[in-house]
Structures are given as structure tokens and as C-alpha cells.
Amino acid sequence: MFWYFFASFFLVVLVAPVVKNLALRLGAVDQPDELRKKHLKPTPLLGGIAVFFVFWLVTGYLVFFTDRLSAEIAPAKFFGIFVASLIMVAVGVWDDIKNLSVKTRLAIGSLAILVAVLSGLKLGGITNPFGGIIPLNWKTYDLGLLGSLVLIGDVLAFLWLFGITYTAKILDGLDGLTAGIIFIGSMMIFFLTQTDKFYQPEVGVLALVLAGVCLGFLLFNFYPAKIFLGESGGLFLGFMLGVLAIISGGKIATALLALAVPLLDLLRVIITRWRKGKKIFEGDREHLHFRLIDAGLSHRQAVLFFYFVASIFGVTTLFLQSAMKLVTLLLLGVAMLAVGWWLNRIARVSKQN
Fold it and tell me: Are the C-beta atoms of 4 and 59 separated by less than 8 Å?
């Protein structure tokens, strides 16, 4: 099984330099500025093309030339996931080159997620923290060629994929941050699918492929980065982690705890901007990864801090029952409030001095 992890890893190592040269030729380069983009020199974008191409190359081999993915994942669902991810990468590349408006990006991204959901990527139920399964397939509507729509389950699947996709995209503010966090989340899902209780070898293989492309890309993306994921890469990796959480039987808590800090941070930033009367999608340095650097951490230290937290909370999903996972998430939320208060206090002291 690990052969596919190493295949993904080494293929990205081969493809990433090609994509880097392509980005330079197309002029898809991220320029440093004095506010948020503090990288040392202009850096090529479009890294999402490399991770997308290699992921689907290896996955395509698994689908058409092996029987490893034939048992649990329907062809229609696979096709829908592929089309959705292709739409996301396409709009991401378009944005990296032409700078699309926020509304255009969100509209096309939402359409892509809707394609995946209508193709069969559904949440049939979620684990009840107090025992049993909470069914989500309350009422089904046949949409003909468009597939079917299941109330509650499909709506929650859409919201989950939207949230995790754009959290990963927004998280990509420091070199290696998104690729590293998605690698950790993918490995947590892999380990979970190898346990007796949740044994799912097909999903485990996919998780390894995603982890492999992330780790291979990190060779070029860790500080100082030689190439960035760009809009396309952040969207693709977040989307695929969200997909893994659904097809692994609704292992939302696993991905949620691995990405808990950036998700809670995103919620905090949205509330902060709203209270200050700012546009919700307006770029600034409110995000935790920027605030940690402003507080004195180096670029690498801030990234490694996120890796450490994601690993600790990701590992807890392998041992904790559902109720304790909920308690852990609540405690993490309280911790995030405390960190936010501490960083605000540091910022006020710095202004006074």
C-alpha cells in the first residue's frame, strides 16, 4: 500500500519543477509586499497543478489498473469528485494569472462542490457523541440527469466541503503551512482506516496518495518556498481532505481536529472583521499565523507550531471516543480565545512602546 505513497511523493518531485517553469512563462508569480506577502523574492504560483496532476495520475492508475478502489467508491462518485476538483483547479489557475473577483471565485467554487455532492458524495449519517448514528437522509429528491438531492445530509456535506476547502486556501499564508497540515490530516485518516473498528483499505490508499503529494510538494514549498500552491493548490488540497472525511464514513471529527486551529481562527477573524466594520474577505494580518510572526516567532517556528498542534489533536482522534472528541474541540476553542487575548495584549503593548 505504501508504494502509492512513495509513487505520489516522487512524481511530485519530478513534476513540480516543470510547473514552476510554466508559472514563470505565464507570469503567474506572487510579488512580495509590505503587509501580508513578506517572502524574500517573487515566487511562482500554480503549484496546485502539480499536486492535482499527480494525485489523479496515481488515483487513475488505481481505478483502471488495480482492484484497490473497486469495493467502496462508486464510479459516478469518483467522476464527480474528479470534475469538481478540476473545476476548482481551473478557476484557481485562472485567478493566479488574472486575479478574479472574490464573488467569481466563490461562485465557481460553490458550483464545483455542488457537482461533487450531486454525484453521490453524501453524508448519510454522523456519529452521535452519546452513542449510535444520527441519520441525515431524511428526504430524497430525484433530479434526473443531475443526480439526487438528500435533505440535511447533502446540505451538511456541501457546507462541510465549502468550509474545509476555503479554510485550507486561507491557511496558505505561510510557506509550507497548508501542504503540511493537509499531510497530517491525511495521515490521521489513513491510520484511522487501518484500525479494526474503522477498517477501510480503499480510503486508506487514497489518503496515502494525498499525503504523498503533500510531502513531495513540501520539498519545494517549505520556507523559503521555491513555488507556492497558489489558489488552485489550496482549494484542491482542502477539498480532497474534506472528501476523504466523507467517504471514510463521515470521519468529520478526524479532519476537524487536525484543522481545528485554522478553522477556529477563521471564525475568529470573520467575527473580528465584522465587529470592526471591515469586509469579511478583505486581506489583513489578523490570522493566527501572521499574529504569531508579529509576536516574535520566526516564519519556520510559526509553521512548526501549527504542525505540532495539528499532530497532537489529530492523534487524539485515534484514541478518543466521539463524546471526548467533542470535549477536546470545545477545550481547543477556549484555548484559541486565550491565545487571541494574549496576542491582542502583545499588540497593545507594542503600540504603546
Answer: no
